[in-house]
Write a structure and sequence with these properties.
Elements (H helix, E strand, L loop, with lengths): L23 H20 L9 H13 L4 H19 L9 H25 L5 H16 L25 H26 L4 H17 L12 E8 L13 H20 L8 E3 L13 H14 L3 E8 L6 E9 L3 E7 L13 H4 L21 E3 L2 E5 L8 H9 L4 E6 L9 H16 L3 E5 L5 E3 L5 E4 L6 E8 L6 H5 L2 H25 L21
Length: 540
């Protein structure tokens, strides 16, 4: 039946605009697709080795974002980010529950949503996959600095220790890997959405990052240009997992002394190689050896027995202000404590508690957080021929912190860490993946020493040659190359990330300008006759 013509005397321009019926089915499908894409990126992270799922997740995101409005990009990105971050950060609530886990996951997802809103803005520009990938780099840079000093844990690069993209770390560090992964997925999305007209752009965006990653393997060197060193990582284990792992602080110290003495016996019996240096984990001595004579004596006993310098993770009370420091203390045979390194990048809501009185309104758990004070000196230890960069636990996630410790003159990296607080979760595998990326980024061997596992020996190409299980005492001994040669990533520093971020933000500014011009009313057009910013495809 044909509708009768409008007979009202009311001018058409004065009539209310007709609202489109909301596409509930389409919206639901897009939300479910966004969740699936985020889950795919999560599944690409260790301990799984399906690294190729990360570009798949970005391909799904790209298909959803192309031609969308910023607000739709924000909403879809929020769903994608939650599906990615909530399972990835499950370990944060292992012993404190939802109060830590879900707010952190939501905050990370909101920051991702800011980035995906900007990605939607630039999706209309020529060369959209490139600009969208650059915006992703800018978003990761944002999450690395805010809030509370940043939380870069979900950087895409940290899910790629097994993949073809890993060698790119030697050129541009973690940001370049993230860019390449995002570009591959977004290029695939471009092929799906615009395969008839601009298929060459999409194909190039898919192929070039993968080819660059494979080509960059020629830049990953493992030769010992400054000799070699036999290293030992001691995993003494803890009495129990959880927040109160250190309730028996003396037991933790004794465990590491005992496992070192056992290694010394194995060396004497010819069952193990004599180490040139030994790395103990973070919190291996939560008894301050500068204030407790007995603790210092036990550490020195282990040092003399193994006949090698030991880097001991300890909690030290500063005599000036009476506040604790997360410190690594160097002990040497026949001498005692000779040097210290204090952790510079502290973990908020763990070692420190921002806005403690405010957050106490929601939970008394905040009182478990410490009052640790950060260090300022990036220089590590000289242990025989090795110049050892010390990056304690949480610090390995921060590009600049690790880089500063390397440029201080290191030819070997040590990561003393304590994962007992997070039980049998995936946290320790995620952190090991970061160590592998850092090895390639800076061309250095890495020694990971954990209280409860996983401890590991990582070669400069990111391969793991020794590793322990979880919550078992163990000692890893291996000879690793000492490399002083600086990679291109080390020499360039933060410049690749800064340039990519600047280009991404410039693209957003151009995209906003173009969108504003498109939505500007045409002179002489009727009221309500404004461009829909993509028509039905642009609706949320």
């Amino acid at each position: 039946m044909v509708a009768p013509p409008v007979t009202s005397d009311q001018p058409v321009a004065d009539m209310p605009p007709v609202r489109r019926r909301r596409d509930v089915r389409g919206t639901s499908l897009r939300v479910l697709s966004a969740a699936a894409g985020g889950v795919a990126v999560f599944l690409s992270f260790p301990p799984r080795t399906v690294w190729w799922l990360a570009p798949v997740g970005f391909a799904v995101l790209g298909v959803l974002l192309y031609g969308r409005r910023a607000r739709a990009g924000f909403g879809l990105g929020l769903v994608w980010g939650l599906a990615f971050m909530a399972p990835l950060l499950r370990w944060t609530g292992e012993f404190v529950g939802l109060i830590a886990w879900l707010p952190l996951a939501l905050l990370c997802a909101l920051l991702i949503a800011v980035g995906t809103a900007a990605m939607a803005v630039v999706s209309r520009l020529p060369g959209a996959p490139l600009w969208m990938a650059l915006v992703w780099v800018a978003d990761e840079a944002l999450r690395a600095v805010v809030p509370f000093g940043g939380f870069p844990w979900g950087k895409i690069a940290f899910g790629q220790p097994e993949g073809w993209y890993l060698p790119l770390a030697s050129i541009g560090g973690a940001p370049l890997i993230g860019f390449a992964v995002a570009l591959t997925g977004l290029g695939a999305a471009h092929l799906v959405r615009d395969r008839k007209r601009h298929w060459k752009l999409g194909a190039a965006a898919v192929v070039l990052p993968l080819a660059a990653g494979l080509g960059a393997t020629a830049l990953v060197h493992t030769d010992p240009d400054q000799g070699a060193a036999t290293v030992a990582a001691i995993q003494g284990n803890v009495p129990r997992a959880g927040l109160d792992f250190n309730a028996q602080r003396r037991a933790v110290l004794d465990n590491h002394v005992t496992r070192t003495l056992q290694l010394a016996d194995d060396v004497k019996a010819g069952r193990a190689e004599q180490p040139d240096l030994v790395i103990w984990p973070e919190n291996s001595s939560d008894i301050d050896p500068f204030r407790n004579v007995d603790a210092a004596a036990q550490i020195q006993r282990a040092t003399e027995a193994i006949n090698a310098p030991i880097a001991v993770g300890a909690v030290v009370i500063d005599p000036g202000d009476g506040l604790p420091r997360n410190t690594v203390v160097l002990y040497e045979p026949g001498v005692g404590a000779t040097d210290t390194y204090t952790k510079r990048q502290l973990q908020p809501f763990g070692e420190t508690m921002p806005y403690r009185s405010f957050f106490r309104i929601f939970t008394k758990t905040v009182d478990r957080a410490g009052t640790f004070q950060p260090g300022t000196d990036p220089e590590g230890f000289t242990m025989g021929d090795a110049k050892v960069a010390i990056d304690t636990c949480y610090e390995v996630a921060f590009d600049g912190v690790v880089r500063d410790s390397i440029t201080a003159g290191a030819n070997l990296i040590a990561i003393p860490t304590n994962n007992a607080t997070f039980g049998y979760t995936e946290m320790t595998y995620q952190q090991l993946a970061m160590s592998r990326v850092r090895a390639v980024e800076h061309g250095k061997s890495v020694v990971v020493a954990a209280t409860s596992g996983v401890s590991a020996i990582v070669q400069p190409d990111g391969s793991v040659t020794r590793r322990t299980g979880m919550f078992t005492p163990d000692a890893l001994v291996a000879t690793v190359p000492l490399r002083g040669e600086a990679t291109l990533a080390t020499r360039l520093g933060a410049w690749p990330e800064w340039v990519m971020t600047a280009l991404g933000l410039l693209a957003v500014a151009i995209g906003l300008t173009v969108t504003r011009r498109r939505t500007r009313p045409t002179p002489g057009a009727g009221v309500g006759e404004e461009e829909t910013d993509g028509g039905p495809a642009g609706a949320a």
